[in-house]
Every structure is written in C-alpha cells, then in structure tokens.
Design brief:
CATH architecture of the largest domain: 3-Layer(aba) Sandwich
CATH superfamily of the largest domain: P-loop containing nucleotide triphosphate hydrolases
Strand content: 5-15%
Radius of gyration: 25 Å
Domain NadR/Ttd14 AAA: 156-310
Shape: elongated
Helix content: 40-55%
GO molecular function: catalytic activity
Pfam family, one: AAA_28
Strand order of the largest sheet: 3-2-1-4-5
Largest sheet: 5 strands, parallel
InterPro entries: Cyt_trans-like, NAD_biosynth-regulator, NadR/Ttd14_AAA_dom, P-loop_NTPase, Rossmann-like_a/b/a_fold
Distance between the termini: 45 Å
Domain Cytidyltransferase-like: 6-55
Number of domains: 2
CATH class of the largest domain: Alpha Beta
Length: 342
C-alpha cells in the first residue's frame, strides 16, 4: 500500500486545498491529511477538522487533528525540522511514502522525513487563492470557498427598528442590488396565517421559525444575507405586549452576534396595516429598540431620511461591510450552538 500525506492549517479550507487532495489521492492508496491548528487562531481547529471530514467523507482519506503548538517557520526555532518530524510521525497512522504539497517547503520536509515529495499546482495557476486572502476578504474570494462551509463566511446584516420604518422594502432592494438572499419577517407570515389573534404563546414558535429561516437562507446566500428583523425584535415586542420573558428567546436575542445592523429611524410617515398598532408610540418604541441594541452590545449604521436617502445610505454601508475580514465570533462554539433549533 502506498501511503501519502498532506499537512496544513486549512485556515480555512478552500478549493485549492480540495484540488491538492483530489490529485494526491490519485497517486496513493491511502491519504492522511493532518489539520494543524494553534489555540490563538480565529477559526478553531475543531471546526476546521469537522469541515475537512465533511468535505472528504471516504475511508481512504483520513483526517487527523494536530494540536501541537509547534513553531511556524524555520527561523522560529533551531530544531524546527526535527520538531515537525516528530509531530508528523507521531500522528501518521502508517509509514509515509510520499508527501504532497503546493508549497516550497515540500522538498526540505520530504528530506527530513525520508520520503518522496510531489508538488501539485505549486504556482497556484489553477486555483490562485490563499487562506490568508479569504480571511482578509471572504466576499472578494467567494468563488474559492467550498459551498458546504460558506454559511460561516456569510456577512449577516440585520435591518432593525420599530414598525413602519421601511425594513422590508429596503431588505428586498438590498438583496436585489447585491444579488443575494433576504429573510422576511417571520412573525408577519406566521400571524397572517393564524386564524386567531396573536397571544403570548406565539412568540416562541415565531422566534424559532425566524432563526430556522436564517440558517437555511445562509446556505445559499451570495456572501451577504439581509435579515428583516431578528430575535432581538421579537424580544422587544414580547416585553412591550406582555411584559414577560422566554429564556430560550432571551438567550439568543442577546447572545447571537451579527456582522452588522442597519438601524432605521422613524423619520418617515407611519403607515397602518392590520398588524401595526403602535403608531402613537413611535418615539417610545425607538427608545426600546436602542436600549435593546445596547443591551445586546450591537453597533449599527443609522439609516434615516426619505426612502431614496435611506437606500443610498444602506448601499454605502453594505459596500463597507463587504470589505471586512472574517469575524471571529462567526466561528465560536457558542454562536454555532445558539443557531441550533432545539
């Protein structure tokens, strides 16, 4: 049996990595992939290992997590190569016949390990991408992020504020402008289909339905996802109408983090419909929402003016957000768990 080995950070995995693994597997019987992580890195190692196993679910490709806090460059330690030789051999399930890389370190590492080195796309001509580039600007390099892990890199932007401030209209326009998904307010859809008036028991299914919609829409979003309100809004209205608290909702309303929020001001006319009844409390509700944003520790872009001015401000804000690097909070176990629908 010919045993091949690949090692890397996969921080994050990208389509160049997948190409390296596909081509390497053609040249060996069993391929071991070492996912090497450091505790200080933004994307935790456990998550990268989960991603790699999801992307390579076959018995002849073995994904192994390496957590050794090794030096990263030869100049970092005089015994650099021996340290890595010990780590690699202790994690490899079989003797190593060949290592595959797309890096210049492949030859010296093979010499230390006493095996063959095969370079694949060393010049990165087929996949001109690096994990560093994705970390610095994921939306700019969206095409190189494997589809199953894209939801972690989506910029989630919440449109928030009290009723009748144009959230739905603006969310639709932004989704169309940036060619991506938006999530309508789940409460409206839910209550329009409900044969009886709203009561306190409706708030938990509304919250779960809205969160479920977010999770699903993120899977097919084109780098950005616009949310017409979120669970913080649901919490605000629960407190306004019933003065009560639902622990499941409160935990997520205050704990879930988003890349950005657009806070829509009340400086446009209030329009009545069958689900709106707080036209005489606009200032009070604005204050409630601002207090909720502060409680949840959320910054926001203030969107005000007439409809055309709002759209212009929102587009300018989103164009800024598009350039942002990955957000550390997107990859924490806490945020992953909070988006699970129990």
């Amino acid at each position: 049996m010919k045993h091949g080995l690949i090692l890397g950070k996969f921080y994050p995995p990208h389509k160049g990595h997948l190409h390296l693994i596909r081509e390497a597997k053609k040249l060996c019987d069993h391929l071991t992939v070492l996912v090497c992580s450091l505790q200080r890195e933004i994307i935790p190692g456990f998550l990268r290992v989960e991603w790699m196993k999801e992307l390579h679910s076959r018995p002849d490709i073995e994904i192994i997590w390496v957590q050794d806090e090794n030096p990263q460059f030869p100049e970092d330690h005089p015994n650099f190569w021996e340290i890595w030789k010990k780590t690699i051999k202790s994690h490899s399930p079989f003797a190593i016949d060949v290592i595959f890389t797309s890096e210049t370190y492949g030859d010296p590492l093979a010499s230390v390990l006493g095996c063959q080195h095969i370079a694949i796309d060393l010049g990165r001509n087929q996949f001109p991408i690096s994990a560093t580039a994705i970390r610095e600007s994921p939306i700019q390099h969206w095409e190189f992020i494997p589809e199953p892990i894209r939801p972690f890199f989506v910029k989630r932007i919440v449109l928030t504020g009290s009723e009748s401030v144009g959230k739905t209209t603006l969310a639709k326009k932004l989704a169309n402008r940036f060619e991506t998904n938006w999530i309508p307010e789940f409460a409206r859809e839910y209550l329009e289909q409900k044969p009886t008036p709203m009561d306190e028991s409706d708030f938990l299914p509304i919250a779960k339905g809205h969160l479920s919609s977010e999770v699903e829409a993120a899977k097919t979003s084109n780098g950005i996802l616009f949310l017409d309100t979120d669970l913080l809004t649901t919490k605000v209205y629960l407190e306004r109408y019933y003065g009560s608290d639902i622990p499941w909702l409160t935990k997520r309303a205050l704990g879930l983090q988003y890349d950005a929020s657009l806070f829509l001001d009340i400086d446009i006319p209030w329009e009545k419909d069958k689900l709106r009844d707080l036209g005489d409390e606009r200032e009070e509700m604005k204050i409630r929402f601002l207090n909720a944003m502060e409680e949840a520790k959320r910054d926001f872009f203030l969107i005000k003016g007439d409809f055309s001015e709002r759209e212009k401000l929102a587009i300018e804000s989103v164009n800024q957000i598009k350039k942002w690097p990955i957000s550390p909070q997107s990859f924490t176990k806490e945020q992953i768990d909070l988006r699970k629908i129990e």
